[in-house]
Amino acid sequence: MQTKSGLISGNLEEDNIFRNVFEKIQTAILIIDPLEHIIVDANPLAEFLIGRSRDELIGSPCHEFVCPAKCGECPITDFHKDVRNIERAIINAKGENVPILKTVAKVQIQGKEYLIESFIDIIDRKRSEERKVALLAYLSEALLRVKKPLELMQQDLLQLAGQAKSGDYDTEDIRMQLQINANNLIQIVNNLEVLQKKALEGKESEIPPAFREFIIGK
Amino acid sequence: MDDENLTRDETGSSLCLLLAQADKVYDMNLMVVKKILHANCIPVIVTVNKPYRILVKMYAKEGIDQDSYYVIDAVTKYSGGECVPGPHVRYVNMPSNLTDLGIAVTELLRLVPEGKKCIMFDSVSMLLIHSPTVTTSKFLHFLVNKLSLADVSGIFLCVEKGLDPVIIAQMSAFVDHIVDGDKADTILCHL
């Protein structure tokens, strides 16, 4: 039986057990009528993540909040796709996209089929992923702009020692090359400071998308 | 090795990213200049590491005549040295001035007599001290386009593993060949 207050079985004891689980579980759950594509129940965590009350959610079309698919293009009922632990986003009351990990399961309740959409908020994981990308970008940039040039400078200085010993190069030749290496060292120190500052500020948006994709491996 | 292969392909020019170990970049510079000359190409060396006067001495020791090559020198001013003008050299005030570096390439290529020309850029890795990877990548793309339009070959020296895979992937899209140092001889066929 479906009412405005959600699904009830008619068995008070069972209802109490499952209602308690439904309300206390730390996974957001929406129960959806697959024929009408409307939400028939929502647990408190789903209310919290979506930013709308249960009363507002019940009776609303599911694609308004949890699925961008248009009518007739439902991945579950129209395209029969398996949605299990898939990264998606919900649109909260402020219109913001909240990254989630969601699973959709079909269930029979009182002889009628419903979809159980369960999802968890992965915004912290996403932030941590962004930080990881920023850190790896910092390390990669530091490697390219510090370690490799230092290797070349090391070779240059070894060569310079040889030049000084050979007598083929005058004082100005040696001075110029030493000065270039000294200037390069100053520049490398500056680069490290800039890179460190960027890493600390978490300027993830400055990381080229191609590099981000390479780091994340997607 | 068949030096007769040291001719350009039907499109007229060839662009190559040459990867070498850090301790081989100097030898690679000398080897590439010799190969370019041997192929009857005129070398135009862009140096962001060695000043012109040092290159002149280094090449002279290897028997390379000062009049046989041209140099764009981005480090003499940077070192506080004297920029002695000459018909075979153009100076840029510092390696980070990529705009002037690009202009100098255009100007010098106009000055170089008619015939096959090949730019050798020494080195992409040293340029990364002065410019971020993204800026360097854009500059190299710009330079490669300029060379292609001018029908000039180009060899870009770089330390092995001195570029991130994304830049390598980008570079591979706009150079004709990416060659490992130990196979450097094959660049003869790509000039």
List keywords for this structure.
heterodimer, A: alpha+beta, Beta-Lactamase, 7 strands, about 20% strand, rod-shaped, B: about 190 residues, Rossmann fold, 7-stranded parallel sheet, about 40% helix, globular, disordered N terminus
Written overview of the protein:
The complex is a heterodimer of chains A (218) and B (191). With 218 residues, chain A is of the alpha+beta class. Chain A has 2 domains: 2-121, PAS domain (Beta-Lactamase); 125-216. Helix content of chain A is 49%, strand content 20%. Chain A contains 6 helices and 7 strands; from the N terminus they run E-E-H-E-E-H-H-E-E-E-H-H-H. Chain A has helices at residues 12-24, 44-50, 54-57, 123-166, 171-201, 209-216; strands at 2-3, 6-7, 28-33, 38-42, 86-91, 97-109, 112-121. In chain A, the strands form 2 sheets. Chain A has a 5-stranded antiparallel beta sheet. Chain A has a two-stranded antiparallel ribbon with strand order 1-2. In chain A, strand 5 (86-91) and strand 6 form a beta hairpin. In chain A, helix 4 runs antiparallel to helix 5 (171-201) and helix 4 packs across helix 6. The radius of gyration of chain A is 30 Å and the shape is rod-shaped. In chain A, 22% of the residues are buried. The model of chain A has no long low-confidence stretch (mean pLDDT 83). Chain B has 191 residues and is an alpha/beta fold. Chain B has a single domain, classed as Rossmann fold (3-Layer(aba) Sandwich), CATH 3.40.50. Helix content of chain B is 40%, strand content 19%. Chain B has a 7-stranded parallel beta sheet, sandwiched between helices. In chain B, helix 2 links the parallel strand 2 (42-47) and strand 3. The radius of gyration of chain B is 15 Å and the shape is globular. The interface between A and B is medium-sized, with 30 and 35 residues.
